[in-house]
Amino acid sequence: MSDPHSQIPYWNAAAATKTFTHPLHLPWLRGIDSQAAILDYGCGYGRTMAELEQYGFANLTGADTSPEMIRRAQHLHPALHFTTLHTPPTWPTPHAEFDAVLLFAVLTCVPGDETQRRLIAELNRVLKPGGLLYISDLLLRHDERNRDRYSNYATLYGSYGVFETGDGAVCRHHSRAWLTALLADFETVSTRTITVPTMNGHDSTGIQILARKPAGVSG
């Protein structure tokens, strides 16, 4: 179940009903030129893309593995550019195409360690030297309900923090240490902790990380 393809049917079925809530932190975007090439990887139905457009960004690309999410995005935001990812995490373009990549509530949908590593490596590849990676995701919770479900699914999925939701998704909450290790090839610019409603309506503890690809790294 660590393959993101395994959850495409879930996201196709959920595309018309789910609401995503991770907020854009505008101060982190103020240093980015309005013509900068920005990729929203795992864009869902385009909510964050539409916010970026409202902030004045013009060179935007949204991508998602779910064809139904992309259809909803194109219907809601016909002036924006969206594409379906057919072979995730691979992005079908040369190195160093984007000035910034957003990864909002995507790692939580990619439960496997190695799949997450491959995703971050691919985003590193398509970022220009000095480019920004803006992650928003969910941290481990320490209440009894979450500890129990992490423990119940740890053996099945091979990582503590992975669990199944009542409506059929496989999700993951992360330790700060794991996220730090995952971003070892980046320079952390800033972090912030937030409270964010999950797609099923529960308040959860989120983390946002702004990281930079070192300027001397081209691949």
Can you walk me through this structure?
The chain is built from 6 helices and 9 strands. With 219 residues, the protein is an alpha/beta fold. The model is unreliable at 1-5 (pLDDT under 50). Strand 2 (60-64), helix 3 (67-76) and strand 3 (82-84) form a beta-alpha-beta unit. Helix content is 27%, strand content 26%. The chain has one domain: Vaccinia Virus protein VP39 (Rossmann fold).
Question: How many separate structural domains?
Answer: 1
Q: Give, in spatial order, the strands making up the sheet with the most strands.
A: 3-2-1-4-5-9-8
CATH topology: Rossmann fold
Number of helical segments? 6
Helix and strand content put the structural class at alpha/beta
Rg on CA atoms, Å? 16 Å
Strand content: 25-35%
Oligomer, anyone? Answer: single chain
Distance between the termini: 29 Å
> Main beta sheet: strand number and arrangement?
7 strands, mixed
Helix share bin: 25-40%
Q: Low-confidence parts lasting 5 or more residues at pLDDT below 50?
A: 1-5
In brief:
With 219 residues, the chain is of the alpha/beta class.
Write the SSE topology.
Elements (H helix, E strand, L loop, with lengths): L7 H7 L23 E4 L5 H8 L5 E5 L2 H10 L5 E3 L13 E7 L8 H14 E12 L5 H14 L4 E3 L5 E3 L3 H7 L4 E11 L5 E10 L7
Parallel strand pairs: 1-2, 1-4, 2-3, 4-5
Antiparallel strand pairs: 5-9, 6-7, 8-9
